[in-house]
What does this fold into?
Amino acid sequence: MRTTQRKAQEVAERDQALVRLALDMISKEGFHNLTLGKLAQEAGYSKGTVYNHFTCREDLLIELSAESARRQLRYFQAIADLPWDGVKALYGMAFAYMRHAVVAPVLFECSITARTDAVCRVASEERMARRDLVESQMEQVVGHSVQRTVADGAYDNPAVPTGAAVDALRAYILGYAAMHLLSRRFLWAEEEGLEGSLAVMASMVSGLGWTKLPKAELLEIYKVVVDVVDAIAREYQTKR
It folds into this structure.
């Protein structure tokens, strides 16, 4: 391996090691208590070394949101590879997005905060471009499944383009995950466990125009998705 390639690999590995360490520190003390100086001290690096990777806390937050997107992309790709039709895959990806908030709550919260204007105004264009590239890959995977639902005749809402329906579904899942899975302080009513969650999801998906699946089928999809997401999540746990 050439010297330049080896150095680039070392930088990338150190970058990921710092991200994993930051995740541990945020889990214990919260993001508001994390500084690049504390991260350097915990990692055993000089502040200059850490600042060579992240010019500010906002850069680190963007990279954490990129890590969140990379994991979600793996979930979506694994689900897209299953022998399911488009509607099942769409439900599966929705469940995977929700499950991600359960198994990686810190990353999920960071991904929300990293979308705010206050963060994006300060973070480097390079970091945001890397994050946006992964998110565009996720959109492609989801978009392919949506196209399959149209080809299968499983989407019937002439008043709403599929792209807008996907945006609406994503907004619902994001709100659900933030309110039901991360904090219960904003809830107006309680659901009755998993069955309630599945019923709401089915109503939302079918209300937008996709085929509504029976509860038993949704439960099977959900179980498969949990197995897929949790298996991938465990891989990251062993690296820390």
About this structure: DSSP finds eleven helices and no strands in the chain.
